[in-house]
Amino acid sequence: MGMPAPHPGNPVALTMGEPAGIGGDIALAAWTRRETGGLPPFFVIDDAGRLAALAQRMELAVPVRTIAEPEEAAALFPHALPVLHRPLPASAIPGCLNPDNGKSVVAAIEEAVRLTVEGRAAAVVTNPIHKKALYDAGFRFPGHTEFLAELAGVPRVVMMLACPQLRVVPVTIHLSLKDAIASLTSEEIVAQGRITAESLRRDFGIAHPRLAVSGLNPHAGEGGAMGTEDSDIVAPAVAALRAEGIDAFGPLPGDTMFHARARAGYDAALCMYHDQALIPIKTIDFDGGVNITLGLPFIRTSPDHGTALDLAGSGKANPGSLIAALKMAAQMASMRMAQAPNV
To answer: CA nearest 304: which of 132, 150, 96, 125?
Structure first.
């Protein structure tokens, strides 16, 4: 899938996410902080009436204004929250899931991708979805990542979690520890390392990325005393990456990779399983972590949290991760645009 480079002034496209969750809450709250810290202009693909009612419920002074085209958003953004109005088929009650709205949630993602691929939006930022509600509506993908890969027509994408102090990539994701170990292969580590290195160059402007590769076992196997997976699977993957010219090193003991001095020595960490990657980043920056999908022809980021149905409509949801996702999306889009030819 090819795409034109977006115009520098293009806004970011934000999807509605699960209408019963906190997506609307944090979108409204993020707009109220638009004058602090370089928040890029964004528009929401959502039901404008839902957002206006939610703002009133939360006692937020957010003027909600409908737009006909994304190009209207940048000029309107300083004064009101721009919304591409897409009416929901059923009322959205905070905290109460309704599968009847599932198709609208999916359609918002599809439209955000289309507008970004057309060069009319700078990037896609997705608000959290509720997978069970979408499954009940006929959604056939495990989650956002797999759906976006199909929309883009790419065979493989990589999940990165990032904050200013750390970037991590879990090689295996939502698997039990037993299944993660069984599924781990050198080929998968190499494939994800390759995509990660390319994205660090293209989207983060790091000319010579350094990848720290964690071991699977305690002490990276302790020379085989604590398992042979590190010597049999991880070490050959590191050697293969290095043979491709990628500055990868490891396997490293997972318990000494993430302190400040160690983090200064690499640009991203490839981790062997979910918690090995997510525990350190959530400890370092719980409210500001960003989920990024690498390997797409467009930029996609997301807050690193779920729908928080228990907080929906309360005004208590922290918009920090969404704000970070919006900022990172715009920064990555600018970096990618700067490297595009004939722009």
So the answer is: 125
